[in-house]
Amino acid sequence: MPDFPYINARARAMRSRLLVSGRMDELLAAPTFDAFVHALASTPYARDLQEALTRYRGLEAVDEALARNFLGTTTKILSFADGKARELISAVLLRWDLANVRAVLRGKHTGRAEEEIMASVLPAGTLGEVALRDLARQPDVGAVAGALEAIGHPLGPAVAQGLAAYQAHQDLLGLELSLDRFYAEHVLAAAHGAGHNEGVLRRIVQAEIDALNVKTAVKLARLEGGLDAPARRRFFIPGGAVVDEKLFLTLSARETLEQGWQVLRVRGFPVETVPEDLTEFERTLDLLLARQAARRYLGDPLGLDVVVGYLALKYNEVVNLRLIARSKVFGIPREVVRKEMVSA
After folding, report:
1. What is the radius of gyration, based on Cα positions, of the chain?
2. Can you tell me the mean pLDDT for 21-48?
3. pTM, 2 dp
């Protein structure tokens, strides 16, 4: 297996710097935001926090420190690899580039300022803070597409492909669908092959595709008046392991939703009942995916599993710290925050 024994040894050493549950509880129990920042300064985030505080204040400083730390983590992991191992890890990291590009496009579509957009991204993968800031300061969606192509980013062609339709109809959804399809195709191509590591990557992206298709189908089934099959088919993302196009069309129609859900249960989808609260349903699916990825840390010690699991654990930690920081600023009760936090 290419280079993974060495890469995984380094990842395990980095894993030892993650916060133990007791330390996270101490941060959650901090009585004020200032007390939280003081406690965070005695963790492995100290150096990034110190640097962030020279440029920012308050919540913005914490967000900056966490973002710098996560980017440093993903950059370091990628630096350990070359050849096929690097290709596979880059494909894993592309999910964060996808989320960040989507956030920038939404910001440009709604006319948000550069700093507002930067507050909604988490640099990782190949798009660091400098690259994302350059995207965020572009004047419009078309300029973002041009900037992505100029740096040769894998998602650049997907944005360019959907640009004409977006400019003609201001159809942000169509542009995002173009991105999602390209991401699925790109990562599945990287996962082509019969090897263990390719199989790990393939199962990860297939689970993401299935979750996205089910979320979309349920929303379509709840639309007043509904859509006909050709209109619904436009929203389907191929490549999942559970949800094929036929099942997607069944799930996305109000009159056949229950029938489709029975098929989902038979195929092993992790949520067994049709959701009533769509927001809670999406959150549940996201948590399940996050936990599944984190548990891969205990998988094959000589394969991609350890890197996938470590990156998920690190990302979950950063998300939890951002939640805690916001709870101190906005006075959100601890029990509410604890419910929202991602645990392994």
Report:
1. 21
2. 97
3. 0.93
